[in-house]
């Protein structure tokens, strides 16, 4: 029996075909217009409700008429400044200068400047000031014309009779000005200027000319007397704004102070790449994000207790990919649970709480990234589209809430996605994808990977090792204490259609062999036996051959303590017409 089913693992080297794996654009279902009742506006773009990805919104200019089966995979650029092309280095330097200027001027936190006053609004104010000035002038004339025992008023009628006035009177006028100044202290200073500007009367001049000069000076003084009023109306409040000794403000984003060190360069590069290295647009986006974070109270949101919503299985982080990127799983099929759905989307308050929870989850995930030039500062997103037709077409509240969350993530978290893998893609999606394909740029589309239900696990294994993939998606990672951990590497293999496949584990005498294995989709027969190395030894059945149905989707774990040296042989009998993905691992422990 053992000799008939035994096949070396080295014989099974046939590569797997990938015709059902589609690597291309974004899975964004139907267009959705923003309901007027929503507190946060949703753009009228193709629906992306199941894709909670912080990716920038981009409009593509290239259309693809033929169905896409494979596209160039996105490769992350370097974050080391010295490795950037010269144009990108120059753009980064320009953006840093703009940021520095903004920090010096406190533009990130300063309130917006008041709207400029229109000239039409200034005219009524000027017209209102004219009567006041005229009234002041009239009062001054009355005071001058009234009889008084004072020296200054007594001189006024003498000026009208200038021809007969003797020289002694002229000399008295020269001596009297200091007295006039002292007596007129309470009178506006313009009167003093009037007296100074009035030339001394000459014997050869007519009295009428002197009177005209006095009238002219009075008009000029009254006109200038309103100027000090306007000058005093402009307070000295503008003086502090002209001070240049104010220290630059400090602004942090995702826990990294801007321009503090090289980590800031990595953040600024995200904004530049999101805007195709257009410096002014990147700077405008940065200022918008800083303002939004202040408005949304991100720092307080991080401390807010949003546990107990039951969303831990909807969006969660689990393991890393082969390059070390954290992997975030989005499984919106969980909302098929009506109780969870009602608790999350029954009213606007609950929807807003879900939105805050999603942003909080994103913020906490980002705080675990490494923003050093050599670090990992992006995620791999896995979006499970299982049960998506019902969710998209009939779950209106879910569609609205996830659209709102997506819009915030797109606008305020640029370039945080290294790869998006869509699994369990429904049958109708390829046709729909061809319709919305042209909405995205080549850069955006190169980050997306699509796989149907039968190729989901195989597609995930291209980017994530099996021991890091959750068991529900075809991997070996399970919750709780297990014999194996993610530190124990697994091996991938293929079981050919209508054939048997065997795996051999050598064992020594009195050693304890532990193994676990699974076939994605199972529907195969599995058995295990021990074959001793000594000639004439008897084969021992460890596990009797049995068929494991597709519905089971379990990981088989077992162990065997060998009485003598030999090998443990696992047999997988695939009688279907489809090849099967096999994943297994083992380790040997000393027996007690």
TrEMBL record:
UniProt keyword Cell division present: yes
Compartments (UniProt record): Cytoplasm; Membrane
Biased composition (Low complexity): 50-70, 151-162
Annotated GO biological process: cell division
Annotated spans, Disordered: 1-181
Chief subcellular location: cytoplasm
UniProt name for this protein: Patellin-3
Organism (species): Solanum stoloniferum
């Amino acid at each position: 029996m053992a000799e008939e089913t035994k096949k070396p693992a080295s014989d099974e080297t046939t590569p797997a075909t990938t015709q059902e794996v589609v690597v291309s654009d974004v899975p964004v279902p139907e267009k959705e217009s923003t309901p007027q009742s929503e507190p946060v506006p949703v753009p009228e773009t193709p629906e992306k409700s199941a894709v909670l990805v912080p990716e920038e919104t981009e409009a593509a200019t290239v259309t693809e008429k033929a169905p896409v089966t494979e596209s160039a995979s996105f490769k992350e650029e370097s974050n080391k400044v010295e490795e950037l092309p010269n144009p990108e280095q120059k753009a980064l330097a320009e953006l840093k200068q703009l940021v520095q200027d903004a920090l010096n001027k406190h533009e990130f936190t300063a309130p917006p400047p008041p709207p400029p006053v229109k000239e039409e609004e200034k005219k009524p104010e000027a017209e209102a000031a004219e009567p006041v000035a005229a009234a002041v002038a009239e009062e001054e004339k009355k005071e001058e014309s009234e009889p008084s025992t004072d020296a200054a008023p007594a001189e006024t009628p003498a000026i009208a009779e200038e021809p007969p006035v003797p020289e002694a009177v002229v000399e008295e006028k020269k001596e009297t000005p200091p007295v006039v100044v002292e007596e007129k202290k309470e009178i506006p200073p313009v009167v003093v200027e009037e007296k100074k500007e009035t030339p001394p009367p000459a014997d050869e001049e007519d009295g009428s000319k002197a009177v005209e000069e006095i009238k002219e000076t009075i008009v000029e003084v009254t006109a200038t007397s309103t100027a000090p009023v306007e000058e005093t109306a402009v307070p000295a409040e503008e003086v502090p704004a002209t001070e240049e000794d104010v220290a630059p403000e400090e602004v942090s984003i995702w826990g990294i102070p801007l321009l503090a060190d090289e980590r800031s360069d990595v953040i600024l590069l995200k904004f530049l790449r999101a805007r195709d290295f257009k410096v002014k647009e990147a700077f405008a986006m940065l200022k918008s994000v800083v303002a939004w974070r202040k408005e949304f109270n991100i720092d307080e949101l991080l401390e807010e207790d949003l546990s107990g919503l039951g969303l831990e299985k909807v969006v969660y982080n689990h393991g890393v990919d082969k390059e070390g990127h954290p992997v975030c799983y989005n499984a919106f099929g969980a909302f098929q649970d009506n109780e969870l759905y009602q608790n999350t989307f029954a009213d606007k308050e609950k929807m807003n709480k879900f939105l805050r929870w999603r942003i909080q989850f994103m913020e906490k995930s980002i705080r675990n990234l490494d923003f050093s030039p050599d670090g990992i500062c992006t995620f791999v997103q896995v979006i499970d589209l299982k049960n998506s037709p019902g969710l998209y077409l009939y779950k209106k509240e879910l569609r609205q809430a996830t659209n709102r969350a997506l819009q915030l993530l797109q606008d305020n978290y640029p370039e945080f996605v290294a790869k998006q893998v869509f699994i369990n893609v429904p049958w109708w999606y390829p046709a729909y994808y061809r319709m919305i394909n042209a909405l995205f740029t080549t850069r955006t589309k190169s980050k997306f990977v699509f796989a149907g239900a039968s190729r989901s696990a195989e597609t995930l294994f291209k980017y994530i090792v099996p021991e890091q993939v959750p068991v529900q998606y075809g991997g070996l990672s399970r919750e709780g204490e297990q014999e194996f951990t993610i530190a124990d590497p697994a091996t991938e293999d293929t079981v050919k259609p209508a054939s048997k496949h065997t795996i051999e584990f050598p064992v020594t005498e009195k050693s304890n062999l532990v193994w676990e294995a699974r076939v994605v989709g199972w529907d195969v027969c599995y058995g295990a036996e021990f074959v001793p190395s000594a000639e004439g030894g008897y084969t021992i059945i460890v596990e009797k051959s049995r068929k494991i149905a597709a519905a089971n989707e379990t990981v088989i774990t077992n162990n065997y303590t060998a009485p003598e040296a030999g090998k443990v042989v696992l047999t997988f009998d695939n009688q279907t017409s489809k090849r099967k993905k096999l994943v297994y691992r083992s380790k040997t422990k000393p027996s007690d």
